[in-house]
C-alpha cells in the first residue's frame, strides 16, 4: 500500500468548458467543490426561513450574519458595512469550502495557491481602487506614519510601501499553507494507521491506535483551523479595507 | 507518482495528464500552472455568483428577519410600557377616588353626628323648658293653695279667737279688732 499525501490536491478536469488562447478551460473537481460551497451557502441563507423565533438552520444563518457584521463594525467601523456582502461572501466561501474539504475523499478549494491568490488580489485591488477613488491622493498617507522623525521617514515609507504590496502574498499564502499542511499531516497520520496494519498484521493494527488517536486530534484541530483561517482572512480584509476608508490612521 | 494516479483514477487522470501537456511527472498540484486558468475562471464564475446571491438575496433576507424581530421586540416593549403606564394611572385614579370617598364619608359622618347632637340638644332643651314650665306651674299652684290655706287659717283663727274671747269674757268682741290682732300675731 502506497501512501501519497499529495494525491488529494490533484486537479482533475471533469469536462471541458472551452479555450482561452491555448489554455483549456475545464470544469474541474475544484470547480465542483466551489459550486458545492456556493450551493451550501445559498441553501443555508435562503432556505432557512425567516421566522420570528428562529429554528436551528435560521439561527446558524443569523449567527453568521451577526458575526461578520460585528467583525466589520469593530475593525472598519460603520462605514465598512458597505463591504458587508464582499466580506460575508469571502468568509462564508472560505469557511464552507474548508469545512467541506475536511470531509474524507473531498477536495479543498483553498488548498490551491491560485485560488487564495485570486481572493487576496480581489481584496488588494478593492482596497487600492476604493481607497484612491474615495480619498484621492490622501490615500497614500497610509505610507507615512505620524510622529516619525524626518531622517528615518524614507526608510519607514519604503517598508510601508513594501509591506502594502506584500499584503496579498501573506494574505493568500497564510490560508493556502494552513490548509495544505493540515491536510497533508492528516493524510500522513491516517495513512500510517493503514500502513502499519497492512505491513505488520495484528501487531500493526494494535500499534496503529496511536497514530489513529493523533489523526482524531488533528482532525479536531483542522476543524478549528478551517473556521479560524476563514475568520483570519475576513478580519484581515476588514483591516485592509479600514485603511482605504480611514487612510489617516 | 504519475503512474499510481493513472492506475487509480483511470480515464480522469489520463485526461488530466493530457491537459497538462505531459509535464505531470511528480509535480506538486498547487504549483501546476496548467490548471491555473481553469481554477481562476471557475473561481471568478462561482465567487461572482455567490456575491450576487449574497448581496441581492441572502443578506437582505436574513437582515430583514433580524430587523423585523428587533422591531417586534421594541414594539412589544413599548406596548408593555404603555399598558404599565395605563395600569399605574388607573391605580392612581383608584387611590385618589378612594381617598376622596373616605374623606366624603368622614364628612357625612361628622355632619350627621353634629345634626344628631343638635337635635338631641334641642329636644333636651325643649323637655327641660317643659319641665321647668310644669315646675313653675306646680310651684304657683302650691303658692296659691298655700295663700288660700293661709287666708282660711286667718279666718279660722279669727273665728277661733272671737269664740275664745267670748267663752272667756262672755262679750262678743269687735270683729275688726279681732282681725287686727290675728294679722298682728300672724305677722309676728
Question: Overview of this structure, please?
Answer:
- The complex is a heterodimer of chains A (249) and B (188).
- By secondary structure, chain A is mostly helical.
- Helices cover 69% and strands 6% of the residues of chain A.
- Chain A has a two-stranded antiparallel sheet with strand order 1-2.
- In chain A, helix 3 packs antiparallel against helix 7.
- With 188 residues, chain B is mainly α.
- Chain B has a domain at 38-139.
- In chain B, helix 1 crosses helix 2 (11-19) and helix 3 (36-169) packs across helix 4.
- Chain B starts with a helix and ends with a helix.
- At the A-B interface, strand 1, strand 2, helix 1, helix 2 and helix 3 of A face helix 1, helix 2 and helix 3 of B.
Tag the structure with descriptive keywords.
heterodimer; A: 249 residues; mainly alpha; two-stranded antiparallel sheet; 7 helices; 6% strand; B: 188 residues; 4 helices; 0% strand; rod-shaped
Order of helices and strands of chain B: HHHH
Structural class of chain A: mainly alpha
Task: Determine the strand fraction of chain A and express it as a percent band.
Answer: 5-15%
Helix fraction of chain B by DSSP (H/I, runs of at least 4): over 70%
Strand tally of chain A: 2
Q: Decide which structural class fits the backbone of chain B.
A: mainly alpha
Biggest β-sheet description of chain B: none
Overall helicity of chain A: 55-70%
Shape of chain B: rod-shaped
Radius of gyration of chain A: 22 Å
Average pLDDT figure of chain A: 89
Unreliable segments of 5+ consecutive residues of chain A: none
Number of strands of chain B: 0
Membrane topology (chain B): Single-pass membrane protein
Region (Disordered) (chain B): 1-26
Function (chain B): Component of the F(0) channel, it forms part of the peripheral stalk, linking F(1) to F(0). The b'-subunit is a diverged and duplicated form of b found in plants and photosynthetic bacteria.
Subcellular location (chain B): Cell inner membrane; Cell membrane
